[in-house]
Specification:
Layout: H1 2-15, H2 19-57, H3 78-113, H4 119-141, H5 143-161, H6 186-224, H7 226-231, H8 238-279, H9 285-316
Helix pairs in contact: 2-6, 3-4, 3-6, 5-8, 6-8, 6-9, 8-9
C-alpha cells in the first residue's frame, strides 16, 4: 500500500510541469513590460521627440531680421518713438554742446596762428571751420536717419536669404509596437529624449534672445548716435566716432549672419534626418539614440553660431 502511494505521488510530480509556473511569470513580466512601453514610456518618449522637432521647426520663424528699422518689434512703434524722442530732446543738445566745444578749441588754435603775416591763411582756416561746422551740424541732426538708412539697406540682404527650406516630415516614433520594444533600452531613450527636448527649447529661447537683444542694441545705438558723430570733430576722439560707425554697420551685418544661420538650420536637420532614415533600423537602439544626439549637436551649433555672429561681422569689417 505504501509503495502504491509513493508511486502515485511520483507520478503526479512527474506529470506536473515545473516550467509552467516560470512560463506564467515570464508571460506576466512580458505583458507588464509591453504595457509600460506602449502605454507609459512610449508616449512620453515619442512625445518629447515630437515636441523637440516641433520646437526646432519654429526656430527660424522670426520677422525681426527682415523688417524695417522703425518696426523692429512688430506691432506699433512705441520703442522706436521712445528712442527717437530721447535722441531729439536729450542727446542732440549734448552733441551740439560737444560740437560747440570743438569749434571753440579750433578757433583758439586758429587765433594762435594769427600774426602780422598770416592774415590770409587765418581767413582760409576760418572758412574751413565754418564748413566744418555746417557738415557736423548736419551729421548730428540727421544721425538717426543715417543709421536707419544704413540698417534698411543692409536688411535687404536678409529678405533674399529668408524663407529657405522648411523642416521636412521628420519623425522619431522610436518606441512602441512597430519600433523598439526592449525594456532595457527605455532608460537611455528617456534620457536622450529629455536632452533633445531641453536642447531644442534652449536653442529656441536663445535664438529669440539673440534677435531681440540685437534689436534693443540697435535702438540704443540709434538713440545715442548724435554723440559719436559730434566726437568726430576732435582729432583726439575721432577714432571713437569711426568705431561707432564700424560697430553699427557690424551690428547690422550680424542680422544678415543670423538670418543665414537660422535659414541653414532646418537644412542641416533635414540632412541629419536623411542620413538617419537611410541607416536606422527600428530594432537598432544605437542608431535611434545616435540621431537625437546629432540633433543636439545641431542645436549647439546653432547657439554657437548665433553667439559668434557679432564677432564674425566685425571680422568682415576688419576687426
Amino acid at each position: 500500500m505504501a509503495l502504491a502511494v509513493a508511486a502515485a505521488t511520483l507520478a503526479i510530480v512527474a506529470l506536473t510541469p515545473v516550467t509552467a509556473r516560470a512560463d506564467a511569470f515570464t508571460d506576466i513580466a512580458d505583458s507588464v513590460n509591453k504595457w509600460l512601453i506602449n502605454t507609459l514610456f512610449g508616449p512620453i518618449i515619442n512625445g518629447m521627440f515630437s515636441g523637440a522637432l516641433s520646437v526646432v521647426g519654429t526656430i527660424n520663424s522670426t520677422t525681426l531680421l527682415t523688417t524695417s528699422f522703425s518696426s523692429l518689434f512688430g506691432h506699433g512703434t512705441a520703442l522706436y518713438e521712445l528712442a527717437d524722442g530721447v535722441r531729439n530732446s536729450v542727446v542732440k543738445p549734448c552733441a551740439h554742446s560737444i560740437l560747440a566745444l570743438v569749434m571753440l578749441v579750433q578757433l583758439v588754435r586758429v587765433s594762435e596762428k594769427v600774426d602780422g603775416s598770416a592774415t590770409m591763411p587765418a581767413v582760409k582756416e576760418v572758412v574751413e571751420l565754418a564748413v566744418f561746422f555746417v557738415i557736423f551740424s548736419w551729421l548730428i541732426n540727421n544721425s538717426g536717419e543715417i543709421c536707419e538708412a544704413v540698417f534698411d539697406d543692409l536688411t535687404k540682404f536678409n529678405s533674399y536669404i529668408g524663407g529657405g527650406e522648411a523642416l521636412s516630415g521628420v519623425a522619431l516614433n522610436s518606441v512602441g509596437d512597430n519600433a523598439i520594444t526592449d525594456f532595457a533600452a527605455i532608460g537611455p531613450l528617456v534620457i536622450t529624449a529629455l536632452l533633445v527636448f531641453l536642447f531644442a527649447i534652449v536653442a529656441q529661447v536663445f535664438s529669440q534672445l539673440m534677435v531681440y537683444a540685437r534689436a534693443i542694441q540697435l535702438y540704443v545705438y540709434f538713440m545715442l548716435s548724435p554723440i559719436p558723430f559730434a566726437l568726430m570733430g576732435f582729432e583726439e576722439t575721432r577714432h571713437m566716432g569711426i568705431n561707432f560707425v564700424k560697430n553699427f554697420v557690424a551690428l547690422c551685418l550680424a542680422g544678415t549672419i543670423m538670418m543665414f544661420v537660422l535659414t541653414c538650420f532646418p537644412m542641416l536637420v533635414n540632412m541629419v534626418a536623411a542620413d538617419m532614415t537611410q541607416a536606422a533600423s527600428p530594432s537598432d537602439v544605437g542608431n535611434f539614440i545616435l540621431w537625437p544626439l546629432k540633433l543636439i549637436a545641431m542645436c549647439l551649433l546653432l547657439i554657437l553660431s548665433l553667439m559668434r555672429s557679432g564677432s564674425w561681422a566685425k571680422d568682415i569689417l576688419g576687426g
